[in-house]
User: Fold this.
Amino acid sequence: MLLQANAAACCTVCDAVLARTRHPETDHVLALALAAGICLVIANVTPVLAIEFGGMHVEANIWTAVLSMQRGWFAGAALVLAVTTLWVPALQIAMLLWLLSFARAGRCAPGSRVILITLHRLRPWSMTEVFLLGALVAIVKLSNWVRVIPGEGIWALGGLTILLALLSRYDPRAWWGLALHTPL
Amino acid sequence: MSRQFTAAALGLVLCGTCGLVLPRPSSASDARCTRCACRIRARLPRSEERTLAWLLAGMLLYIPANILPVMHTSGIRGGEDSTILGGVVSFWRAGSWDIAALIFIASVAVPVVKFLALGLLLWSVRQGHVSARSERAKLFRVVEFIGYWSMLDVVVVALTSSLLQFKTLGTAEPRIGIVFFCSVVVTTMLAALSFDPRLIWDAKVSNV
Assistant:
């Protein structure tokens, strides 16, 4: 007999679970994606680093870095930076949360096909870890001249880097079966 | 070596998007995957030409990326333009050999390794070489893995110029070299994405 979505087959004698249709990793990945989403928000609303000189205080994070290159030809580089460190990670996390919260409820998320294709295509373009390393280099570089204070954002970026690395171990291709109930 | 079964020999084809294994379609032109509805291709279309085009574009852009300044700092000592290599040298002279090495690897070594590795892969595929296939497949995976670390300098320049905005101490501004540098990263990543590593295995072993 085939199991319905989100159901378990139990032994009629001892009641032990024999098989489940829910993907065992759904809760695991959903928790990671939720934590990554929280880190992403913190990293974008708090300063990643700040410098102090003569009573003045300047803060920076992904947004200020992107905006510092908005004029003229630099807009191209700013766009690449914004896409790879802001939009792609945000989109990946949002799409994972959407897909997996439906999967957890045993339903197929609307737009699964487009989301899974987009997740696959976006994979090489997420560069949060590069931004983190760049922030660390900037701290060392600037500390020669001014007092540099690491902000809350750098811890959030560190957390986000680790969580995205853990999430990247899950190939979006493996979720086709989960989302559409088709064989892998 | 044990007998290897390839998808092509078994009449199968892999959907490049969702990874579903399908029977090879009879008409190659417009077959679509039964699961994700994306077009099925046994190999990436015109992989060699597209990889070569992106690779050459990246190599051309790499010249102005290194010659032109990436950042301009002005302060009490006067204005100063700095290039990528100039930044490495100044870190080295200041005693931060570790940061100098990091920037050198990310900004100079990684792009050069990518040029050489992709060039070698393209050349060996075109020549139909059958030696060191596993090693070449590994080389391609290394190129894919190191691909985006060259963005490091773009991040450093952007963060520095967003922070150093003091009239009294000094200011930092991005310079056009950083745009070239950023485009080197994008073009070399597109080159790696255009290359189909299965081409390495397509050359026929003559004595079989």
